[in-house]
Every structure is written in C-alpha cells, then in structure tokens.
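Exam prep: given the inputs below (a chain plus 1-O-phosphono-alpha-D-glucopyranose), describe the expected output before reading on.
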Amino acid sequence: MKQPLRKVVIPAAGLGTRFLPVTKAVPKEMLPIVDTPTIQLIVEEAVKAGAAQVVLVTGRGKSSIEDHFDRNFELEEALSRKNKMELLEQTRRIGEMVGLVSVRQKEPLGLGHAVLAAKRAVGDDWFGVMLGDDLIDSEEPAIGQIARVSMQTGKAAVALMPVADDQTHLYGVAAGKPQADGNLLVDRIVEKPSRGTAPSNLAVIGRYVLPPDIFPMLEKMKPGAGGEIQLTDALAVLAQQGRLVGVRFEGERHDAGDRLGYLQANVAYALKRPELRDGLLAYLRTAVQR
Ligand code: G1P
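Solution:
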C-alpha cells in the first residue's frame, strides 16, 4: 500500500447461528461488549487507524447496524432536555464517527464472496478488511499495525497469531520466511487445514490490508474449504506472487464469535472500566466458590 489506509470493509452478513436465539432478530454484530456493540468497537479501531470510510457488507435483517451509526434526533432531543450532556455527546459521536456505506451480499457464499460484494464501493484503492468476530485490544489499533507494515513493504498484509496445534483447523494458517523485522513473507496459506496438515501454527486473525486486484482474483475463485468462496484462497495467489506479509501484531485478541470467547471479552473489557472493576471482581471471587 502506498497511501495511508482510508477504506475498510466489514463483512456483517452472517446469520449468527452460534448465538441463537438472540440472533433471531438481533444482528450478531450488535451484541454488546459491556454496553457497546461489537461492531462499534471494530469501527472505532478503524477510525483510530485513520480510516474515513467503512463499507459494511450486510444481509437481510441487519438494518439496526445502519441505525446505530446514524443520528437519532429523538434520542438526542430527549438527552438534551434532561441535561444528560455526556450521553448526548457519546450518542452524537457514534453518528458522526465515519462515512458508512452498506452493500448487500445477496447469497451467503463465503467470506471471499462477501468481500467481493464491496468491489464497487472500494474501487481502485487498497483497503482494509476487519472481521467483527475478532476483537483486538491494543495500544496501536490492530488494523493500523497491519496497514503500517503494508505501507513499509508495499505488499498485502494479514494479522497472524500463534495458536495451539489442536486449534489450527479453525483458521487460515500461514507459513513462510521470517523477516528481520519479525514479520513473515508468506509463501503458503491454507484455509482450515484438516488436523495434522497445517503448514505452521500461525493463524490468520481477522485484519487484512489488500490491493484492489484481489477482486478479479476473487471473481475467478472456485469454492474452497466448506464449499465457500474463501478469502484465504485469494491470499494464496498473492502469497505465490511474493506479495503477502504476515504481521505478528501486538494486542490481546478475543474470539467474540464464540460464546465462551464472547463472555471472556465481556469480563476483560468490564475489568478495564473503573466503575465496574471492583464490583465485578468481588462477584467473580464469590462466584468461583460456589
Ligand atoms: C475466517 C477466515 C479464517 C480466519 C478466521 C479468523 O474464518 O476464513 O481464515 O482465520 O476468520 O477469525 P471463520 O472464523 O469466519 O470461519
């Protein structure tokens, strides 16, 4: 990437079946971490990294996400009348945070297919992809760390994290040549390798910075793992061309797409809130004794 990151694509078309029944009528992306929808945490990360435009790839029943990033005059009026200025400020800020466009993924054909739906909205620019299931709590926003490496190297970049050997089948997994700066020049990347066949234990975590020529690659892509059009398979083409770097990012990652990971994220983020920390710790201490 030559210019700083401006656009990010956030795929949000999934049905959220792992979180039924709540996801019957509430998009998974609106599930809160303490009091903030996970999608807001993702958008805040993008904004902190300098992105000005978010392309949301949605499906049916996701309009509350768009409402969330819109202004809500009725609510603002009411908060102002009650003199709740801090809440008013917070509410306004969400509506003004970023330019958001949404596009529809018309069929659930996989992550690569979802990213392809953003083609027209992205145009000829390099862009970020952020997966809402992966929350990364870090000093420097994770997508900013990936973008920085992409700028330094001129290559596409993806976040990597070591996972236990018995977890590699859940992820895209990358291998390649370690570079002096600690990153990896990726030469192989496989989506959800079957047990015992992973090329390494370095898992792809949902932050990517990609060139616009990924779109024609995705257009040609045949269904891969799970019968879906996989983003990882297009990354494999970049890797073969020597155009993909794996970045060992700094930060704590939570898998908010998993029920246990989601609960852990709630506890971790709540413990960082001064107004909640002591009460929650006291509760957890008594709860574990039961
Ligand atoms: C997706 C990607 C996978 C990546 C993972 C990270 O898989 O396809 O390569 O490792 O996100 O969370 P999913 O978790 O959607 O099955």
